């Protein structure tokens, strides 16, 4: 499911990132790549904030739809 | 003799150059400031408009130059900042690189360190913000970190100056003796291909292992440098071989190995004393409120309201003070020259031209400094990044980017720093679009025009009329952005990815330094472009010889007459209005002062004169014209520096046409309604 659908407080694992090379590259080098577990701190209709080990990233409208994730129960 | 003495000093002082690297928000600037104090120099990196800061300090017999690299997360070539840092390290070969690390966020911050070590840099690790780490109940084993990475590790709390002397000592030591080499072991499969590539490809000046890794990652710039077709086939073969083994692309695989190594390293070298990490981080809790779905936008608007209150309420008395001083100073100089029997023209040039002109600009200094102070506080506290997010959706609707919000906000103070702040936008399209519409944000220089005209004609609704102009600027920016987007910048807005730094209490020193850096840009403008501009105007207003200063017979008066017919359809076809607008191109601040000079009255008398020269309708049309018609010359120069002549031409052209068109439209439609009544 796209990251944009995930509820706040939920933990998810990144499955796939769709987008241009530059975009994926930037995201990847910041520690967000397929296989990594992240937590959704806030989401719709407010901004989407995810965190991974204390690093918090805000993702703009548009970016969140390109990241596919699977829920971690 | 003198030469000999200098040689002696040089012999004694050993010169060293080091670079300062680190993630954004790692406190790098604070480390830089406390290391170098006031001995700093700001310039540009060659070929780009990113600022390059250099500082100096001396320690024992060493003279050390510190080059502050842009804040970066890695050494890829995806952004200008990262490319600059990389090129600098490869070409200039600094004696050492101090990497400033937010110690409360080890893993991600160490990622950059692995990249630097792979590049073969002589690294010193500066674990900054150690106070935060300790308050979180975490213990970092610096000896272990140092041993595994093979680099010296220094703990600092830069905003209190703690550990800076130790850091300086470490810099001296490492520049004498190089640290051990370090490598991350990728998997055997990857290592095999690295070796193959190392043997097949060489790039002079670049470490071979690093080149091989970058080629596997598909680094566009390094690939371009390795044009040799023979090597290219080897590269493609290596990449293909590896990708067959892996589930996903090679770049991700390499990144994953680095993070895997770091996650192990962090686990081994940190120990939680208390179980404080698990509790909800205080920043998270603040975020739940500040970017809350219902509260986010109201809080944001309240913040902005506060900023403007601070700027205008506090700024007004200070501005009045500067104004009175300038008037006094002008008169004093003028009477001084007359007293010394100096020529009349000199007195006029100094008091009417230079002091009057530059003074009218300096009046805005308090407003501008306060705005930059507010912005520096918002930035340092961490709220600014949230603001970009709260407004992202709205900005997207305009075809702009969440990060466009900061430049637009700055534009209300002065468009020049606004235009310069677009440098944070990664996408060139978004950046140019934001620059093009920035002048529509009504800068503080345009306010006196509104105050004068709205006061003269709309005294009962003055506030509302002025507000309508600010709003009109915003609406026009939206419309223009949409149109330009469709015509010149088709395609999607680059998605926003932005780190949200933890909330922090800003330090006074840091905030002040930041404010000064931006304000001094404005001062420099007053000292250069505006200075030259007012001298030019003075000449045009004084020539030909014998003509009364700024009268209809002067060159500038004739120019005004030339333009007057063009402005007639907008309701202000007098030569004085034409001249005022012409002068306004130099700086919008000048418009009111020019009208004063031309009508031969002080500012106090201006209101009554204007009431006879304009109608309420033509006054409004004039204000709209003043809002839109052309960016001031300093803004034009800034646009040129940040883009090229083509976009500068467009910015000037569209605003001129739009401003004139709107003024005419408002006047004509208004006149029609008046006639119907």
What does this structure look like?
- The complex is a heterodimer of chains A (73) and B (677).
- Chain A starts with 10 loop residues before the first strand and ends with a strand.
- Chain A has one helix at residues 21-29; strands at residues 11-17, 37-42, 48-52, 55-59, 67-71.
- Chain A has one domain: Ferrous iron transport protein A (FeoA) (SH3 type barrels, Roll), CATH 2.30.30.90.
- Chain A is mainly beta and 73 residues long.
- Chain A is 12% helix and 38% strand.
- Chain B has 677 residues and is of the alpha/beta class.
- Chain B folds into 3 domains: 12-176, P-loop containing nucleotide triphosphate hydrolases (Rossmann fold, 3-Layer(aba) Sandwich); 188-272, Helix Hairpins (Orthogonal Bundle), CATH 1.10.287.1770; 280-677, no CATH class.
- Chain B contains 32 helices and 10 strands.
- In chain B, the strands form 2 sheets. In chain B, strands 2-3-4-1-5-6-8 form a 7-stranded mixed beta sheet, with helices on both faces.
- In chain B, helix 4 (106-118) links the parallel strand 5 (96-102) and strand 6 (123-128).
- In chain B, helix 21 runs antiparallel to helix 23.
- Chain B starts with a helix and ends with a helix.
- Chain A binds chain B through residues 19, 21-31, 33-36, 41-42, 44-47, 49, 51-63, 66, and chain B through 73-74, 76, 78-79, 104-105, 107-108, 111, 218, 247-248, 251-252, 255-256, 259, 281, 283-284, 287-288, 291-293, 296, 385-386, 388-390, 392-393, 396, 401-402, 492-502.
């Amino acid at each position: 499911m796209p990251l944009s659908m995930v509820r706040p407080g939920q933990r998810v694992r990144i499955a796939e990132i769709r987008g241009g090379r530059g975009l994926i590259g930037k995201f990847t080098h910041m520690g967000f790549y397929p296989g990594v577990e992240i937590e959704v701190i806030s989401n719709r209709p407010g901004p989407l904030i995810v965190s991974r080990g204390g690093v918090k990233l805000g993702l703009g409208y548009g970016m969140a739809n390109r990241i596919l994730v699977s829920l971690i129960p | 003799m003198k030469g000999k003495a200098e040689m002696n000093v040089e012999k004694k002082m050993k010169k060293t150059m080091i670079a300062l690297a680190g993630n954004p928000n790692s406190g790098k600037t604070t480390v830089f400031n406390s290391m170098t104090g006031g001995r700093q120099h700001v310039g540009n990196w060659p070929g780009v408009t990113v600022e390059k800061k250099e500082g100096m300090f001396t320690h024992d017999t060493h003279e050390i130059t510190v080059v502050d690299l842009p804040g970066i997360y890695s050494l890829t070539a995806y952004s200008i900042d990262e490319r600059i840092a990389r090129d600098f390290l490869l070409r200039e070969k600094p004696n050492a690189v101090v990497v400033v690390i937010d110690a409360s966020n080890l893993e991600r911050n160490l990622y950059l360190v692995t990249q630097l070590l792979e590049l073969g840099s002589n690294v010193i690790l500066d674990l900054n913000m150690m106070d935060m780490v300790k308050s979180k109940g975490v213990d970092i084993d610096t000896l272990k970190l140092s041993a595994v990475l093979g680099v010296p590790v220094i703990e600092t709390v830069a905003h209190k100056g703690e550990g800076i002397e130790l850091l300086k000592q470490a810099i001296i030591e490492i520049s004498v003796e190089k640290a051990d080499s370090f490598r991350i072991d990728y998997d055997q499969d990857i290592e095999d291909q690295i070796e193959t590539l190392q043997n097949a490809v060489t790039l002079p000046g670049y470490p071979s292992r690093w080149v091989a890794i970058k080629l596997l990652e598909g680094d566009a710039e390094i690939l371009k440098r390795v044009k040799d077709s023979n090597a290219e086939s080897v590269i493609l073969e290596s990449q293909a071989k590896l990708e067959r083994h892996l589930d996903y692309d090679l770049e991700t695989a390499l990144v994953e190995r680095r993070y895997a190594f770091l996650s192990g390293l962090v686990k081994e070298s940190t120990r939680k004393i208390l179980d404080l990490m698990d509790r909800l981080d205080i920043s998270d809790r603040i975020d739940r409120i500040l970017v809350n779905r219902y509260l986010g936008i109201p809080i944001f608007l309240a913040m902005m309201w506060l900023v403007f209150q601070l700027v205008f309420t506090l700024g007004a008395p200070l501005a009045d003070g500067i104004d009175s001083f300038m008037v006094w100073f002008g008169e004093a100089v003028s009477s001084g020259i007359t007293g010394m029997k100096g020529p009349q023209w000199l007195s006029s040039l100094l008091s009417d031209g230079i002091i009057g002109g530059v003074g009218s600009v300096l009046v805005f200094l308090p407003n501008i400094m306060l705005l930059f102070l507010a912005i520096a506080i918002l930035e340092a506290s961490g709220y600014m990044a949230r603001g970009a997010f709260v407004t992202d959706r709205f900005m997207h609707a305009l075809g702009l980017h969440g990060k466009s919000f900061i430049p637009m906000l700055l534009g209300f103070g002065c468009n020049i720093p606004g235009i310069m702040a677009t440098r944070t936008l990664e996408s060139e399209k978004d950046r140019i679009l934001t620059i093009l519409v920035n002048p529509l944000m009504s800068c503080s220089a345009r306010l006196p025009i509104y105050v004068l005209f709205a006061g003269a004609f709309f005294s009962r609704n003055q506030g509302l009329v002025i507000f309508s102009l600010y709003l009109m600027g915003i609406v026009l920016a939206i419309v223009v952005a949409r149109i330009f987007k469709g015509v010149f910048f088709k395609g999607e807005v680059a998605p926003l990815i932005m780190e949200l730094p933890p909330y922090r209490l800003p330090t006074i020193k840091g905030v002040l330094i930041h404010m000064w850096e931006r304000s001094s840009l404005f001062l420099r403008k007053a000292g250069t472009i505006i200075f030259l501009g007012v001298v030019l105007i003075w000449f045009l207003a004084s020539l030909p010889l014998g003509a009364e200063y700024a009268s209809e017979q002067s060159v500038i008066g004739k120019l005004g007459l030339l333009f007057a017919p063009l402005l007639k359809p907008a309701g202000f076809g007098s030569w004085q209005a034409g001249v005022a607008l012409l002068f306004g191109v130099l700086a919008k601040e000048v418009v009111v002062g020019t009208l004063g000079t031309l009508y031969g009255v002080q500012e106090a008398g201006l209101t009554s004169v204007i009431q006879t020269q304009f109608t309420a309708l033509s006054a409004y049309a004039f204000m709209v014209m003043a809002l839109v018609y052309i960016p001031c010359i300093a803004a034009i120069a800034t646009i040129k520096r940040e883009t090229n002549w083509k976009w500068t031409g467009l910015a000037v052209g569209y605003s001129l046409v739009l401003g004139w068109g709107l003024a005419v439209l408002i006047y004509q439609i208004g006149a029609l309604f008046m006639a119907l009544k």
